[in-house]
Amino acid sequence: MSCCITSFLYSILLYFAIIPALTLLAIRLTIRKLRGKVDITNEVDISGKTVIVTGASDGIGKVTAEEFAVRGARVILACRNLQKAERAVADIRMRTTNGEMIIMHLNLSSLSSVRQFASEFIQKYGGGLSILVNNAGLVNPVGMRKLTEDGFEEAFGVNHLGHFLLTNLLLPELVKAGEKNPSDPSRVVIVSSGAHSWGSLSLDDLMYEKTPLEDWKWISKLYCNSKLANNLFNLELAKKFRSDKVNVNCYALCPGFVDTNIGKENMADNPPPFWVTHVLFPLLKLVMVKDAKEGAETTVYCSLSKYLTHHSGEMYRNCEFWDYSKRPKLSEKDATKLWEKSEKLVKLN
Ligand SMILES: NC(=O)c1ccc[n+]([C@@H]2O[C@H](COP(=O)([O-])OP(=O)(O)OC[C@H]3O[C@@H](n4cnc5c(N)ncnc54)[C@H](OP(=O)(O)O)[C@@H]3O)[C@@H](O)[C@H]2O)c1
């Protein structure tokens, strides 16, 4: 009798715990392998170089700042919350004493803050900028249209326009660093998202004042649009670098599905059903969601890989080229139009 019970319990354990756990482990290992990795033997030397990471107080940006510091760079952490940035630096300093870490205030939802950041940077550290990582970003709540200080739709204003202005103001510094290192172009790295594929920019209504919001249940169309703008910006920026013959490259990337704080406060306002938060999310997290360190790998790859020295204007994912031609909505005409409209909005011309 006791023998029957034991073998029954073993079968339960086998079918409901061991087999599912091994299957999940196999899927997890396969996905990790497919994701690719930064090849540190293929990195340019950044010791002593100046780099900027926006949104370095948290998530992918914080890890990116750490990766640069470990490699000896002077890292400017461009953050809107200075206390949070100080905590991030203190945490990073527990793991590495390499490099220099400097916090500067930058609020991308305010054009005057962007201008102030750029002029202070040029005044204090203006010997050339080797890498600019446009990483900061927000996901706005579904179905809601918020505005920045300058009256722009928030996701578009922060994720695209703030970075558009910042990059343009820092171009002379990027060019300067590129001139000093002819074999090693300066780089602009734009942290976009695969969500750009669901975006559709209405170029005559960029602030979404007239176009009806067609959000999905848990993802904002405005976020997707802002990420589409990131990719169009990357295309046009590369075109300008080529025509101006400057030694600067740019790349856009999707970090993957990464477990960070982005959008979490929105979930509190609009919580998904119980089975999503308690079954689907934990399972996804276990199997395929990246942690912030893994999420920063493609940013580090685009910032440092020698393989990319002769490439510009492309998109990357999992430390690999991600073919634009296989995705719609990235027309060069739209990229040029968006650039012209953005210039007017941020009053560059
Ligand atoms: N996580 C993902 O699955 C995922 C997927 C695709 C793309 N991405 C992209 O990856 C980038 C980094 O996101 P994350 O996942 O690391 O999120 P996160 O942990 O929330 O970090 C976002 C960073 O951006 C900063 N930020 C937000 N609004 C800002 C503003 N107005 N001015 C200056 N800084 C601002 C935040 O500052 P505070 O610390 O002050 O909030 C924070 O440092 C974003 O561009 C995001 O769109 C993420």
UniProtKB/TrEMBL annotation:
<dbReference type="InterPro" id="IPR002347">
    <property type="entry name" value="SDR_fam"/>
</dbReference>
<dbReference type="Pfam" id="PF00106">
    <property type="entry name" value="adh_short"/>
</dbReference>
<keyword id="KW-1133">Transmembrane helix</keyword>
<keyword id="KW-0560">Oxidoreductase</keyword>
<keyword id="KW-0472">Membrane</keyword>
<feature type="transmembrane region" description="Helical">
    <location>
        <begin position="12"/>
        <end position="31"/>
    </location>
</feature>
<protein>
    <submittedName>
        <fullName>Dehydrogenase/reductase SDR family member 13</fullName>
    </submittedName>
</protein>
<dbReference type="InterPro" id="IPR036291">
    <property type="entry name" value="NAD(P)-bd_dom_sf"/>
</dbReference>
<dbReference type="GO" id="GO:0016491">
    <property type="term" value="F:oxidoreductase activity"/>
</dbReference>
<keyword id="KW-0812">Transmembrane</keyword>
